[in-house]
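Weekly structure sync, notes
Attendees: PL (lead), two postdocs, one rotation student
Agenda item 3: pending single-chain targets
PL asked that the sequence for the first pending target be pasted directly into the notes so everyone works from the same version. It is reproduced below exactly as submitted, 236 residues in total.
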Amino acid sequence: MKEWRARLAIFAIAGGMTSAACADVLIDDFSSVDDPTPWPVVITTIDSIDINELGLTNVIGGSRHSTVRATFLETLGLDFVQAAIVPNFGMILDYSSTAGARGDWDLLYDEDGAGLNADFSAITDIMIEFGRFDFANGQPLPVTVTLFDGNSAALLTRSLDSPGPQTLSFAMSDFSGIGLLDLAHLQSISVFLDPGAAVDFRLTQIYGVPAPASLALLGLGAAAIGGRRWRGAGRN
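Predicted structure, written out during the meeting:
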């Protein structure tokens, strides 16, 4: 009876610690914008627009800095790049451009320049979920994630290369320069989206996935139970 009580206690503790330790780390779910909202923006000339939003909820560090650019417009005044964050419409970041327009969108999370000081040492992957991608003219959508600790940077580029909803996974181990980063004190995260002309996409969520702790905790529990059994057998 005592052995079973000990076993149940270990598994209960492990279960509680696992649920806390394995929770995803939300970076942005686009459910919060400045009030009054600065969105949408429409760029009809070769230009860039910077938008700094503060006091946001469900955003790491509470701030989001966006830089939206139009880098090519075939017909000035007619072709355009449009960008919006729409929290009341499924919580999305929405981007579209006309057939003769090309632009990009850079998202920066750094607690309005103060630095996140976020602990990502247990994060194994950064996930970016897309609710829509039209794959116009067979053009992929490159996405680059950059991590910065105040001294060194690590980056990784992945691409959407098929239409429809999908998720890009950025494994921390694949980042160039990740070994130089102090992941326990991450200061900024940036996501750079570089679509081709006439490309439309919707981004729904960015989050970090921690390493599963359940196996390690259950292993400790099994070791403790095994030790108890061994000591009991030794006394017989």
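Discussion points:
- The CA atoms of residues 147 and 153 lie 5 Å apart.
- The two ends are 17 Å apart (CA to CA).
Action: rotation student to compare against the earlier draft before next sync.
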